[in-house]
Amino acid sequence: MDKTKKIFLEIILFYIFLFLPLLFSPFSYSILLPKDILLTIGVIFFVSFYFFQDEIRIKKITLFFLIFILYLFLSSILSKYRFAGNYILNVLIINLIFFVFYTNYNYLNTKKILECFVILFIPVAFIGILQVFRIDFLHGLLVFGKNIPATFGNPNFFAAFIIGIIPVLYMLFKESKDYKKHFYFSLMLIFIFLLFKTGSKAGILTFFIEFFLFLLLSDLNERNKSIIIFFTFFIFFIVILWNFKIPLEKVLNKDEWLKNESIFFRINIWKGTGELIKNNFLTGTGPGSFAFVFPFFRPEKIMFWAKEHSYEIVYPENIFLQIMAETGVMGFLFFLIFLVLLYKNYNLQNKYFFISLTGILFLNLFAVDLNYTTTIFLFAFFMGNIFLKKETDFFILKNKKKNLILIFVILIMFYILFSQFKNFISDAYLKNAIHFSQKTDWEYAIINYKNALKINPDNIVAQYFLANAYFDSNKILNALSEFEKLEQKVPGYILINYKKANIFNKLGNIEKAKEEYEKAIKLDPYLKEALSELAFIYYNAKNYLKAEELIKKALEKYNDASLYNNLGNIYFSAGKSKEAIESFKKAIELKKDKDYYYNLGCVYFTLKDYKNAKENIRKAKSLNIVNDEKIINMLKIIERYDKINKDVN
Fold first, then answer.
1. For the residues 24-49, what does the mean pLDDT come to?
2. Could you tell me which residues come within 8 angstroms of residue 254 by beta carbon, excluding any fewer than 6 positions away?
3. Cβ atoms 20, 161 nearer than 8 A
4. Crossing angle for the helix pair 510-523 and 528-540, to the nearest 10 degrees
5. What is the pLDDT of residues 279-300, one digit of tens each?
6. 542's torsion region: left (phi>0), alpha (psi -120 to 50) or beta?
7. Helix (H) or strand (E) holding 397
8. Residue 568 reports pLDDT greater than 80
9. Whole-angstrom Cα distance, residue 611 to residue 607?
10. d(CA 123, CA 256)
11. Among 356, 360, 368, which residue's Cα sits nearest to residue 319?
12. pTM for the whole thing?
């Protein structure tokens, strides 16, 4: 092969390796969209290079993965959430094309590619170290705390990336000499250090699983293996306890494990996902649709645990469950066949790639990973290296047939690139619109939301925020129209029903408001605002029992002063003075507020306990900065009645 062509091909790969982990955009709502664009451009160049080849040899075994993608495409078409599949299908198609064409460059110098692959990740390690030591100029790349490395915008994504490259680093370390050996070993230690600093429990557990696989596949005799494996697990156990400061009694207590937030979260997400799968067993709900369907199957325990309703669950934190939920049992079987084909090609020469792939898949049992562009590309790259040197049956494409296939594939990628650019520009308008919303400049906010939707009509976030902007700017009917459009597309999305209930409340359509509040509460039984406002409707209708039930439901989760105050008002109106007094006192314990003292004083007044009435109204008056007339008048009335009572006695 011409040396210049080979160098050109390697440059394309280096371009992808260098920028894919690091690239992000501060200009769009999703900072990660440029990664998709960069990868697509790189793969377009990569595939175009075949125009300079006399023929293309497509290995037959690689075409099964195309069948898997075609099934996903069919599943997306059949889904009522077909718009949701565009993003994930675009990412999968680009990675599949890269994988199929990469496996045909048999003349590539794999060792050289891998060396450059690792060296180009030095900036990632450097940024990670700076983040650990709180260098503030990288603040835009940080989440979950200033000293947690999150080069990719999320420490869990960073952990997944590290899990993928550690086996390759170890391979290069074993096969190198002199200064290179020391270099790879040092880089490996840095990445292991960064992995522990991410705090990703799934990532740390996967690291030890990979270490176990190193030992299992090593050349040591069986006895030595057993001894090393035993001590590996023992060290793993001690390191986890030390790193997370977990007392031994907690480890041995099942109930203590279930109290852990991440464990509790995942168990309940998986339970809800199980229900979703049961209801959509055969074909699933469609690729990318999980976030839109899951609210109907979200366990009540999750909503009780979540700090706020807007805690939306985008993935089930398990790629196997996600495939089953979104593509049904058929898609899951395709995925299992895909894994069988992959692992059938294991041999000692490619064991490090298999360890990397196994690590990434194992991580997917507990965390989000393959949904992320950088890691799915690593997965495709490692698969490509497994099949690269494999001698197998293949199709030969030459001359006009070859060029037609290439043009077809490149046209598909350009279509995907166009779609990705649209998403990026739409999200740029969205971010701009949010900026204007925060400044309450509703006119420009609405213009930008509309532009975002004009470019990408499936930008669900933009449509939701547009509806809210109309509502906040008092364009009630426009807001209702947008929320109804959104509900047709994604019923159950975030707070649609609650917002519609607010609108109907404002319009005086109480029955429709009640209906929407009930829908909102069905999706989130602890949605405080919906419970409180619906309780107020029942309170005005003098259905005190139903109003009490709703406020008590909110109090199961929120120890909130305003809720106790509302409950006190309900009891007072229902003639339950003793319960009203207790509720107002609980409100005051949580917050010293003039209205709470006033309400408590009024209850005592109706019981002719003028002493306590006067005391509480005076406290209300002391907090009455704005000179509320009702407090001043009430104090005068109580003092008059108290004086009459004393004169009579």
1. 85
2. none
3. no
4. 150
5. 999 889 999 999 999 999 999 9
6. left
7. strand 394-398
8. yes
9. 11
10. 40
11. 368
12. 0.87
